[in-house]
Structure formats: structure tokens, C-alpha cells
Design brief:
- By secondary structure, the protein is of the alpha/beta class.
- It is built from 11 helices and 12 strands.
- The strands form 3 sheets. The chain has a 5-stranded parallel β-sheet with strand order 10-9-11-1-12, sandwiched between helices. It has a 4-stranded parallel β-sheet with strand order 3-2-4-5, with helices on both faces. A 3-stranded parallel β-sheet has the order 7-6-8, with helices on both faces.
- The longest helix has 17 residues, at 300-316.
- The chain is globular.
Length: 343
């Protein structure tokens, strides 16, 4: 039994994850066939398994997609050449990329077209980094740590700096500062590439850290922003553990300690609630650091498909007076948690 438990807000699903989960749920409701998804729709084991059990097949290359199949591209972004190749194979293609990742892709294209070389700070082999580097592979250089900057041999002029959206500030800032020193005329986007949800969650755990002995971060090992939360706390000299199931709590010595619980941007809240119950706190407090109101609409291709289908049904049943519970216009009121529950 833990002493004081602080439940941190914001935690869990961000707007991009909300959009992607709802989009893939809509695909299941519209198409009566196997739906293929390039990469995991979001990086959470429970969600991926949930969709696998509902006729979603996750693939990692264009070779795995059958001709004329229905395809969704994941929230992490897809390299343009891969997206084009998929387009020649699929009969239906919906891109559920997070708009904040799209922003980085646009920046990479803009800087490349102006003749600049790009230093991209990210994690090697992460889906988002692979997609971003694919925008301009001959002009972009991946950097994971400060020392990697020394291996980059490019002129001081015409250099830009971009980032994977899910980095920890403790990962990003040292590299950014070193890059500015090495390239005094370094170009950067006017607005940070780091995702609002990533930075909000990191700021929240930093602010709650002085009240607790341990911070538990709910999320999967494949989630970069979840790992970033853990490293953020550890950089403060505090204990922090990533947990994915209630069984993992038994391995931790938490009795009598003050504990905070948060969750990565792709972690379902029902797992958070199960872990909270497992902790059996003497006292529970809610630590609200930021109130997030961001909303990302469904992908335009999917909105068009849903609207077309709705109009078709209205033509068949012109006398129908039943107001639809779910529609494009009501999407903002439908949560990803409700979407997953509907499967």
C-alpha cells in the first residue's frame, strides 16, 4: 500500500492518438474485409492487440500489402516514396498521420528545396524518424546524441535543425545548444517541433516530482514519449518506472512511499485505472498541471468516405428520421476510449 498517490493530468491519449484510433475504428465499421495498417497505428501493445483481434493486419513494407487492399498509414508519418508506392497497390488509402508530424515533414521539404542540409534529432529505427528522414534522405543527417554532431561534416552555412516530436526535453536541448554553437547560422522552425502533449506531460511530471518518491509511467516499451517521461524524471535524480500491466507493480517496492502516476500519449486510461486500484493508496490527490483542449479531425479521405456513405444511405432510406449517434460532425464528442469500447 502506497502512502500518498498523485494522479497526474495531462496523461494518456493526445489529440493525434485520439484521431488515429478513431480513424482505424471507422475503417473497421465501413469496410467488411481485412484492413492493413502500415506500422502500429500507435505505439501501445494493448491497442495493437485489440485491433489485431478485429481483422486489422499490421505490416512493415509495401511487399506485404495485397493488390487492391484497404490501407491505413499510421500516426507516425510515412516517407513520401513509400506512400506513393502504397498508393499504386491499395484500392483505398487513408493517412492517419499526426498533424504535428506532418509539420516536420513540411519543414524538411522546405529546407531541402532551399538548398539546406538538415540535422534531424531522433531515435534510429523509430517509425517517426524513418518517415521524416524519408522526406529528403540525401539531405538529412540523423543525430541521437551530442557526440553524433562531431561526425557530421557539412559547411557552416545552410544548415537546419529538426526534431522527432516525441523527444524528451532533456534529450533535445543539449543537442540543440551544441548544434547552435557548431553552426552559428543554424536555421530552426519558428515553433518547436516537440509535440505539445509530450512537453506538457514532461512538464507535469517535473512539477509533481518534488511531492513524491517515485513516478510510475504507464505505457509500452515501443512508445518513445513514454520512455521520454521516464528519462525526464530520472534526470532529476528521482525513481521512475515504466509499467504496462498491474502485474509489474508487484516487482516494485512502493509500500509507504509517495507515488505519482502518469501515462504516455498512447496509453489507454483503463490500464491507468487498474494500476491505481492495484496500488491501494491511503490517500489520493489529483495533480492537474495543464488542461489540454487540442482536437485533430479525422483524415480528409476518411471524412469524405463517411460522408459519401451517409448520403448513399439517405438516398436508400429517405424517410429515415433517426439522428445518427456518430457522424463526421459529431466526431469531436466521440473519444478514442469510446471507439475502442465499441469494437
Amino acid at each position: 500500500m502506497v502512502n500518498n498517490l498523485y494522479i497526474v493530468t495531462p496523461r494518456g491519449f493526445c489529440a493525434g492518438v485520439e484521431m488515429a484510433i478513431k480513424a482505424l475504428t471507422w475503417m473497421l465499421k465501413i469496410y467488411d474485409e481485412t484492413i492493413y495498417c502500415y506500422h502500429e497505428i500507435v505505439h501501445n501493445d494493448w491497442i495493437v492487440e485489440r485491433f489485431k483481434n478485429k481483422n486489422i493486419q499490421f505490416i512493415e513494407s509495401t511487399d506485404e500489402l495485397p493488390k487492391n487492399a484497404v490501407l491505413m498509414l499510421s500516426a507516425h508519418g510515412t516517407a513520401p516514396v513509400i506512400e506513393s508506392e502504397f498508393n499504386t497497390i491499395s484500392s483505398v488509402q487513408v493517412n492517419a498521420v499526426c498533424p504535428l508530424v506532418t509539420k516536420v515533414h513540411h519543414e524538411a521539404k522546405k529546407f531541402t528545396e532551399s538548398g539546406q542540409k538538415i540535422i534531424y534529432v531522433g531515435h534510429k529505427n523509430h517509425d517517426e524518424a524513418i518517415g521524416a528522414l524519408g522526406v529528403a534522405p540525401s539531405s538529412m543527417f540523423l543525430v541521437e546524441k551530442e557526440e553524433d554532431l562531431e561526425q557530421i561534416n557539412i559547411a557552416n552555412e545552410g544548415v537546419a535543425l529538426l526534431a522527432q516530436t516525441t523527444l524528451a526535453m532533456s534529450e533535445w536541448k543539449p543537442i540543440m545548444d551544441s548544434a547552435i554553437k557548431k553552426f552559428p547560422n543554424l536555421n530552426m522552425p519558428r515553433k518547436s517541433d516537440l509535440c505539445y502533449a509530450t512537453t506538457n506531460r514532461q512538464e507535469a511530471v517535473i512539477n509533481v516530482s518534488s511531492l513524491v518518491d517515485v513516478v510510475l509511467v504507464v505505457g509500452s516499451d515501443t512508445s518513445s514519449n513514454t520512455k521520454a517521461l521516464v528519462s525526464t524524471i530520472k534526470s532529476l535524480g528521482k525513481e521512475s518506472y515504466r509499467v504496462n500491466t498491474t502485474s509489474e507493480i508487484d516487482k516494485l517496492k512502493l509500500s509507504g512511499k509517495n507515488v505519482a502516476v502518469t501515462a504516455g500519449a498512447s496509453a489507454p486510461d483503463h490500464i491507468v485505472q487498474e494500476i491505481i486500484k492495484k496500488l491501494e493508496p491511503k490517500n489520493t490527490e489529483f495533480f492537474e498541471n495543464t488542461n489540454e483542449t487540442e482536437y485533430f479531425p479525422l483524415p480528409k479521405e476518411l471524412r469524405s468516405n463517411i460522408t459519401t456513405l451517409s448520403n448513399f444511405l439517405l438516398e436508400i432510406f429517405p424517410n429515415n428520421k433517426v439522428d445518427p449517434i456518430r457522424s463526421v460532425n459529431k466526431d469531436k464528442q466521440w473519444t478514442a476510449t469510446e471507439a475502442l469500447s465499441s469494437l
